[in-house]
Structures are given as structure tokens and as C-alpha cells.
Amino acid sequence: MTDLPNRRRVSRRFPLARRRVLAVLPRWLAEKVPRDHWDTDAAFRRRRRVVAATSMAGAGLLGASLSREPGSSAFYGLTLATAGTWVAGGLASGRLHLGHVRWGTDLHRPVVVPVLTGVGAFGAFYGAALVARRIPVLRRAIAHVLKFADEGDNALVAFTTLANGAAEEVFFRGALYAASARDPVATSTGVYVLATVATRNPALVLASGVMGALFGLQRRASGGIQAPLITHLTWSTLMLRYLPPLFRDDRLTDDQRRSDRDRTERAATVRAARDARR
């Protein structure tokens, strides 16, 4: 029982830290618009069961999709299956809300600010990518992900990327956020990061932590999924369009290295077979 006062002090620090963070955020991220989104106890428990099952299924499919060859039918099939799982779980969990933003004294659906937020997030990530090119681990991780953008049909790549972005908001900032009993921003972000860990790609895990926190704050402020969904789609579109050229030379070098290694291995196999016949 001697550590009880320490526990109480720790518990008091979290609200204080949260207030300090909110104090430095812009008004459209810090202030919550009025909303009345209440579930019955039975509906809340059901939502949590659906969310738990969907989280495990979606994470498994996400990891499997990025283990397939870029541009392959298996990759596209698993990617679309992942998006379908997020959407189905989100809708099955219960009622979802689009949310509002305050404009003067009135409430409106969020559109312009989320688009600008997505543009700003892309600018920050583009700058971070320039730095990441100098860090071998991150450079290889980003180059691997961007292979999926370069190798395959451009229309299919764009469709699957945006479909998954929208689906993730339906589930993580929709169903999972509503199923979180305490600190839903931190909870939804944490689960979002854990789901991304299944990809075994450090660049994606880092991005999920940063963007998951931003999307969660948008959900908190607006009371719905429309703001984070629009920001996610804007950010994804710009990343898909402008980030691959930064790492194209790295991917070509890696591909050439693998090609040389394959040729060396084939030559060694042929020599071993000839020696065996002699």
C-alpha cells in the first residue's frame, strides 16, 4: 500500500499533460464541438466485441498483403480484403457519426480545414522523407513500401490506397474510438500502431503513430469521422504522387543488387551440377 500515493500522483499528471498539449494546439484541434453520442451499456459491450475481432482480422490481412509481390493479384486481393474488413467491422459495431466543425456561431460538416490539414501533413512528411533518405534503415523501409506504388497498375494502386485510407478511418476513428472507455485518442492511436506492426515495416509504424494521433485529435474535436477521413485521403494522395520519385534510385539499386545475387546463385548452381556430372 505504500505506493498508492505515487499512483495517485501519476494519475493526476496525465490530465495535466493533456491540458498542456491541448493548450498549444490550434483551436480547430483543441476545442470539441457539442455532440450527443451515447450508447446503451449493451450496445457498448457489443461494439467492443466487434472491434476486438475486427482488429485481429484486419491486422493479419494487412501484414499478409504487404508480404506479397508488388503488383500481384494476391497483393491487390488482400489489400481490398483488408479494407473490406475495416469497413465491415466499423459498420457492424454500431452507429457512426460524421461530425461537425464550428464556423462562427454555426456548425458545419468539415471539408476545407481537413483538406488543408492533409496538405500540411504531407509537407511535414516530405521534409521528414528527405531526412530519412540519410538513415539506411528508414530508407530501405520506405523504398520497400513505395515499390507497391511503382510496380503495378497506377489506377489500381490509387484505388486500393484510398480505399484502405477511408476504411481505416471508418474503423479506427469510428468504431474503435467509440469503443474506448478512457482516453480514446490514445487508445485508437495505440491500436492503430499495433495493427501496423504486423507489416514489420518501421517507416509505416512511425507514420501510423504520428498520423494516428492527428486523426484521433480531429475525431475528438469534430465528433465524427469526416474530418480525419478527408485529411487521410488528401495526405495519401499527395504521398502517393510525390514521394516515390525520392526513393526510386534506391529501389533500382536494391533491385539491381538482388538481380546480381540471383545471377550469381544460378551460376553457382550450374557449376555445382556440372561438377557433380564429372
Walkthrough of the structure:
The chain is an all-alpha fold and 278 residues long. The chain has one domain (36-269). Helix content is 78%, strand content 2%. The chain contains eleven helices and two strands. It has helices spanning 4-24, 27-30, 41-65, 73-93, 112-132, 136-150, 154-178, 184-197, 202-222, 226-242, 244-277, and strands spanning 101-103, 106-108. The chain is globular and about 85 Å long. The relative contact order is 0.13.
| Cα separation of the termini | 80 Å
Percent of residues in β-strands:
under 5%
How would the global form be characterised? globular
Question: What's the structural domain tally?
Answer: 1
Strand order of the largest sheet: 1-2
Helix content range? over 70%
**Overall SS class:** mainly alpha
Biggest beta-sheet profile: 2 strands, antiparallel
Q: What's the Cα radius of gyration?
A: 22 Å
Global mean pLDDT: 86
Number of strands: 2
Uncertain residue ranges: 1-11
